[in-house]
Amino acid sequence: MEILHSVILIMHILAGVGVVGLVLLQHGKGADMGAAFGSGASGSLFGATGSANFLSRATAVLAAVFFVTSLGLSYVSSSRPTRATSVMDSVPAPKLAPDVPAAPDSKAKEIPK
Predict the structure, then answer these.
(1) What's this model's pTM, rounded to 2 decimal places?
(2) Residue 15: which of 77, 59, 71 has the closest Cα?
(3) What pLDDT was estimated at residue 103?
(4) How many CB atoms lie within 10 A of CB 15?
(5) Helices (H), 26-49
(6) Contact yes or no for 75/69 (Cβ under 8 A)
(7) Taking a C-beta distance cutoff of 8 angstroms, is the pair 15, 66 a contact?
(8) Which of 70, 57, 67, 64 is nearest to 25 (CA)?
(9) On the CB side of 50, how many CA atoms lie within 13 Å of its CA?
(10) Cα(103)–Cα(88) distance, rounded to whole angstroms?
(11) Structural domain boundaries in the chain
């Protein structure tokens, strides 16, 4: 179960970093005006509108993966067997002094009532 948790956690972190990176790579709505006046977007790798479609679809896929891994992590974490642990379980027991019996001539037994 620990291996499954680790795999899902790694996928979750990678999907989160991927979503952040893809969102930062995308152009805002104001970038369309620059492309209209010939900023050279038609010579890009994906064509004039291909990069916007590719990046938005890739962002949507990674966001879905992020959502699914979030649900998976919550399920795996809640289905683990819980151990009753306390902070006091890790503290060693104090060493007590050995019981020393009172001397026979001691006046400790003569307590007035």
Answers:
(1) 0.56
(2) 59
(3) 60
(4) 20
(5) 31-36
(6) no
(7) yes
(8) 57
(9) 8
(10) 37
(11) 1-16+48-81
Q: Are 62 and 18 in contact (CB under 8 A)?
A: yes
| Token couple for 106 | 């001691």
pLDDT tier for residue 77 given thresholds of 50, 70 and 90? confident
What is the distance between the alpha carbons of residues 66 and 53, in angstroms, rounded to a whole number? 20
Confirm if 73 and 2 have CB atoms less than 8 A apart.
no
Tracing tokens 């974490």 back to the chain, one arrives at 77
Query: What is the tens place of the pLDDT at every residue in 2-15?
Result: 899 999 999 999 99
What is the length of the chain? 113
At position 112, the amino acid (one-letter code) is: P
What are the residue ranges of helices labelled H in the chain? Answer: 2-25, 31-36, 50-78
**Structure token pair of residue 60:** 């949507």
